[in-house]
Design goal:
Elements: H1 3-6, H2 19-30, E1 36-41, E2 47-52, E3 57-61, E4 67-69, E5 73-75, E6 81-83, H3 84-98, E7 106-108, E8 116-122, H4 127-134, H5 136-141, E9 144-150, H6 159-168, H7 175-183, H8 198-207, E10 215-217, E11 223-225, H9 230-236
Parallel strand pairs: 8-9
Antiparallel strand pairs: 1-2, 2-3, 3-4, 5-6, 7-9, 8-10, 10-11
Helix pairs in contact: 6-7
Length: 241
């Protein structure tokens, strides 16, 4: 059952349950395919923010009888809008990436002082992933460390997944060179390993809202879809020379 379909339903919760238990009970009664990751107070009274395993956010009333799917904005005193939903997702992305061991990333370190870093969900054969990688030297020269995570768009069992396994299963010291080789359209030596992190990273990307590649996650948790030139990236990260 889709989340949109769930919006059309209402449900009853016994009055003696706690607020969090009421919310969990109500959502689980609708569908077992709606795993709840966390429940927290929303940034405005009367509603709770529910994070699902899919990365979606729901806003639920304390009785657990109604919920909203969508983005919530706050109007500031100067008239500008703040996307509270995106702000919440930013902190969630930071926490999720902090749980990923850097040994499971393919890292291109900054040249000289590291001024910033960004995490890039990448595919080895997408055009704009390769275009971004051609500028990896320029990005590193700006003091930006690039941390690659795997996101084989074709999914499990695809040629791309197999190629990415060949990179991630290699010795840590060899992965960057193999990544560059693959991004240049050349074949990397086939390699498999029992605990490849490739599909786990793919699922993580989906949970974080990644739908295509490249997908850039900046230090503040912002998700930037698609290619961006090195100079523009440096400016966005506040490290432009």
């Amino acid at each position: 059952m889709s989340i949109v379909a769930l919006m059309l339903l209402s449900f009853n919760v016994s009055a003696d349950e706690s607020k969090e238990a009421a919310i969990r009970s109500a959502l689980s009664a609708l569908s077992s395919q709606v795993p709840i990751v966390a429940i927290a107070d929303a940034q405005f009274p009367g509603l709770y923010e529910v994070t699902l395993a899919s990365g979606e956010l729901l806003y639920v009333n304390e009785a657990g009888s109604h919920f909203i799917v969508g983005e919530v904005y706050k109007v500031q005193s100067n008239g500008k809008l703040v996307n509270l939903t995106e702000e919440g997702k930013k902190s969630g992305r930071i926490e999720q990436l902090a749980a990923v061991d850097t040994k499971d990333m393919v890292i291109f370190p900054a040249k000289g002082e590291t001024k910033a870093h960004m995490t890039v969900f990448t595919d080895t054969d997408c055009f704009y992933c390769r275009k971004l990688h051609k500028e990896i030297g320029q990005i590193n020269e700006q003091g930006i460390e690039v941390r690659y995570l795997a996101f084989p768009r074709a999914g499990a069992g695809s040629n791309t997944e197999r190629e990415m396994n060949s990179i991630w299963c290699a010795d840590e010291s060899e992965r960057a060179a193999l990544m560059t080789l693959s991004k240049a359209g050349q074949t990397v030596p086939p390699l498999t390993c029992e605990n490849s992190p490739v599909m786990g990273q793919y699922k993580l990307g989906q949970q974080m809202g990644v739908t295509g590649t490249p997908a850039l996650v900046l230090q503040d948790g912002s998700l930037v879809p698609g290619y961006m030139p090195a100079a523009q990236l440096a400016k966005m990260l506040g490290v432009a020379n």
